[in-house]
Each structure stands twice: as structure tokens, then as C-alpha cells.
Design goal:
Radius of gyration: 42 Å
Shape: elongated
Distance between the termini: 60 Å
Number of helices: 10
Largest sheet: 5 strands, mixed
Number of strands: 7
């Protein structure tokens, strides 16, 4: 029944067989004729299902042509049977036409669905192509911006190195000037090394090496590392831990790097005798860590760009610290956000899932 010809052949065969049996069986066998009359519904319904109401109408006409001789013969010998035959042909034919109308509607709806499906598939493919094109364009734009920023950041140390090297090359500098030039060479070389190292970390971030660690122990170790930066201006570090120990799945080295960066930024932004707080809390699925200070805060357009690579307000900053921190957070399926700290200062919120899955990060996507 896979082709229309096979379906049509089946209907023709059924109509023909019914007509032949009706003619062959004697009129007195009324119960057999009654069965044959009822069987007329089969070709009519099949014609409606296969070919719609038009197919049913053709089948009815074909059946009338073949069964008219039997009706004529029985009209005098068995008038009740002839009348039943006419009534059942009419009734079953009407039922077949109704089935055909419903079948045509269902077929039209199916065609509309198929057409809509095809259009949606085409639109989906076009959308995917457009998205991929936008991603490529975004990657190229981001790569250009990063290259320009990196070149700008490298230019200043290179100028200092070039100037100091020129003074030493001429050999006319005093001993104090020579010492100063050597300090410049050392300092600017270290600055360049730090800049390029941070750039490589940002450009080629490694996947987190996930393991289960105790959150409070991890935070205490970060505070211990940051203590050395507080002495110069008497900054106080306050750590508020969750009461019940909680294990999280993360890369402790990367999270330690992220939090240490936030703490050092907060310490540098704080006034003398200021307070830097690191507070933790739990939600249903996440560990939330807040790092706040009492500095001048971040406002306006600066707040919108703090996670951009190479954007910094510090004289000697590389502008990659917060960009790397945001990348690490996203690789842990977490988020790093900023808000103002009331009544003054800045507050960074790190939200980490208790059970993390490493998410590959891409330079362009991050940029």
C-alpha cells in the first residue's frame, strides 16, 4: 500500500468482487446479500482515507455502475434486498465522502506542518550561519582590540628600556645614573614579563582541574596569602565564614588566584586603617563570596569596563587581573559581578556552584 496505484487497485478489486458476488449469489440467499451490502463500506472508507472525497465519489459511481444490473434483477425477485442495496450504497457512500473530507483536511494540515517545518529548518540553518558569522566577526574584532591594547601596554616599558640602554651604551653616565638605569631595565623587564604572562593566561586559559575541597579552608589560605599586603597601611582583613563546613568542587589553585586578586585590589583601593571584608554565604546550589572595601568605589563608565582586558585605572596595572578572574569564574560555571558597597567602596560577588563542571573558555568569547 505504498503507492497510489496499489491503493487504487485494491479499491477496484474490492468493488468488483462485491459486485460479482452480488450477481452470482441467488436472490433468495438474503443473509449473504445483507453481508455483501454491508461490506460496501470497506472500499468507500478506504477511498476516502486514501484519495479524499473525490476518490470516494468516483468509487461510488464505479460501484453503482457494477451493481446496477444486480439491483435491476432483484427489483422484482427480491424487492426488499434491492431497496436495502440502494439504501446501503447511499449511506455508506455518504460516510465515505465524510471520511474523505476529513482525510483531505488532515492531509492539508500535514502538508502545512511539513511546509512550516521545512521553513523553520531553513531559518534555523540560516540563523546558525549568521550566528557563526557574527562569532567570527566578534573574534576578529576582539583579537584586533587585544593586539592593539597589548602593543600599547608594551610600548611604554620598551621606551624606558630603550632609553636606559642608550644611556648605558654611550658610557658617559655616572655611577648613580648607571645604577638607576639598571634598576629601570630590571623593573621594566619584570613588568613586561608579568604583562605577557598574564596575557597568555588570559588568552590560553587552561581547563580547571576540579577536585573537592573544603570552602572555609580555601578561603583561610587566601587571607593568609593576602596578609603581607596589609601591613604598610594598617589594613584590617575580616573574614566571615559559613558556620557549617561546606565542600565545593573547583580548581583550588584557580579560585585562590581569583580571590587573591580581588583581595589585593580591595587592599590597594582602601584608605589607611581601612577594612577589607570577605564574607561567605550559601544558597540552594551555590557558594557566594563577597569581597568589599572602603575605598572610593567604582562609578560610571569605569564600572562598565572593569572586566574588559587591558582596562585599568592603576598607574602600573596591566588591566588583566579582573578579566582573568571573570574567565576563571565562567570556567567554573559561576559568575563574577560588581556592585557598589554601601555607604562607600566597592564589592565584588563571586557565585560558584557547589558542584561545578569545567566549561571551556575561549579568548574571543571572553573578550
Amino acid at each position: 500500500m505504498r503507492t497510489s496505484k496499489m491503493k487504487a487497485s485494491l479499491i477496484v478489486c474490492l468493488v468488483t468482487l462485491l459486485a460479482v458476488f452480488t450477481w452470482v449469489i441467488p436472490p433468495r440467499a438474503e443473509w449473504l446479500h445483507n453481508i455483501l451490502h454491508h461490506l460496501n463500506i470497506l472500499p468507500f472508507m478506504l477511498a476516502g482515507l486514501f484519495f479524499g472525497w473525490r476518490g470516494t465519489l468516483k468509487t461510488i459511481l464505479f460501484a453503482i455502475v457494477l451493481q446496477t444490473p444486480s439491483i435491476y434483477r432483484h427489483w422484482h425477485a427480491a424487492p426488499t434486498d434491492a431497496q436495502d442495496q440502494i439504501v446501503e450504497l447511499s449511506t455508506f457512500g455518504a460516510a465515505g465522502i465524510i471520511a474523505g473530507v476529513l482525510s483531505d483536511r488532515e492531509r492539508m494540515l500535514r502538508m502545512r506542518v511539513e511546509t512550516t517545518k521545512h521553513e523553520l529548518e531553513t531559518l534555523h540553518i540560516e540563523l546558525q550561519q549568521n550566528i557563526e558569522h557574527l562569532r567570527k566577526t566578534e573574534r576578529l574584532t576582539a583579537a584586533g582590540q587585544l593586539s592593539a591594547s597589548l602593543a600599547h601596554e608594551i610600548r611604554n616599558p620598551l621606551a624606558s628600556i630603550s632609553g636606559a640602554a642608550g644611556i648605558l651604551y654611550r658610557g658617559q653616565a655616572s655611577e648613580g645614573s648607571q645604577r638607576e638605569c639598571l634598576e629601570i631595565l630590571t623593573k621594566e623587564s619584570q613588568r613586561l614579563n608579568k604583562l605577557l604572562t598574564n596575557f597568555l593566561i588570559f588568552a590560553r586559559p587552561r581547563l580547571p582541574r576540579l577536585q573537592e575541597v573544603e570552602a572555609n579552608d580555601l578561603l583561610r589560605s587566601v587571607v593568609t596569602l593576602a596578609q603581607h599586603a596589609t601591613a604598610e597601611r594598617n589594613i584590617t582583613l575580616q573574614l566571615a565564614l559559613i558556620a557549617i563546613p561546606q565542600k565545593i568542587t573547583c580548581d583550588p589553585e584557580q579560585i585562590r588566584q581569583l580571590l587573591l586578586n580581588l583581595l589585593l585590589n580591595a587592599i590597594q583601593a582602601s584608605p589607611e586603617h581601612g577594612i577589607v571584608k570577605m564574607t561567605t554565604s550559601l544558597t540552594a546550589n551555590d557558594l557566594v563570596i563577597e569581597v568589599s572595601d572602603e575605598g572610593e568605589g567604582i562609578t560610571g563608565q569605569v564600572a562598565e569596563r572593569i572586566f574588559d582586558p587591558f582596562f585599568t585605572t592603576k598607574t602600573n596595572g596591566t588591566g588583566l587581573g579582573l578579566a582573568i578572574a571573570a574567565t576563571i569564574a565562567s570556567q567554573h560555571a559561576g559568575t563574577l559581578t560588581y556592585r557598589s558597597n554601601s555607604p562607600r567602596g566597592a564589592c565584588f560577588l563571586l557565585q560558584l556552584p557547589l558542584t561545578a563542571t569545567a566549561v571551556p573558555s575561549n579568548l574571543v568569547g571572553a573578550a
